[in-house]
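Notes to self, Oxidized purine nucleoside triphosphate hydrolase:
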Amino acid sequence: MFLKKVYTLVFLRNETQILLGLKKRGFGVNKWNGFGGKVEQNETIIDAAIRELKEECCVVVNKCDLKNIGHLEFTFEGDSLLMDVRVFSASNYQGVPVETEEMAPKWYGYDEVPFDNMWPDDRIWFPYMVKNKLFFGKFHYKGFDTILNYELQELKSMETFYKNKK
Ligand SMILES: Nc1[nH]c(=O)nc2c1ncn2[C@H]1C[C@H](O)[C@@H](COP(=O)(O)OP(=O)(O)OP(=O)(O)O)O1
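result:
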C-alpha cells in the first residue's frame, strides 16, 4: 500500500524556449525543474498549479490556459510514498518571471535544457513534452539519483487516461 501525495508541475513554453526554475530550497534543491508543489487540502489540482506558479515565480496563469500534458508517478525503494505529479504546460500568462525565495527562473532553448542538473527522469520524458505528446511515466528510484526501473507511454487523451485509472 502506497501513501499517495498529489503534486503539480508547470512549464511555461513558447515555440523555441522553456522556462525552468532552479530550486533554492527543500525537495529537489539545486535542480532545475518546472514550477509546482503539493496540492493542499480543499484545493483543486488546477488551483494548486496556479498558486504554486505564482508563489514560485510571480507569474499569473488563467485556468483555461493550463493544459494537462502528462502524469508522472515516483516511488522510492523502502518508502511507502507515491508522488503523483500532474504536469501542465502554458504558453499564455501574465507577468514576467522573477526570482523568489524558492526558485530562480531562466529561459532555456529546447536544445540547451540542463539535464545534468535535473531529476534523472526528466531526460526520459522531456522529449514527449517537447514533441507535444501526452505521456504517462512511472519511475522507481533508489535514493534520489538512481532509477531502478521505469515505464513510459504516450497517451491519446488525458481525460481517457484518468477515466480508466483506478
Ligand atoms: N522526480 C521528479 N522529477 C521531476 O521532474 N519533478 C519532480 C520529481 N519529484 C518531484 N518533482 C516535482 C513535483 C513538484 O513540482 C516539486 C516538489 O514539490 P515540493 O516538495 O517543493 O512542494 P511544495 O512547494 O509544496 O513544498 P514545501 O512548501 O517546501 O513543503 O518537484
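- Residues 3-164 form a domain with the Nucleoside Triphosphate Pyrophosphohydrolase fold (CATH 3.90.79.10).
- The mean pLDDT is 97.
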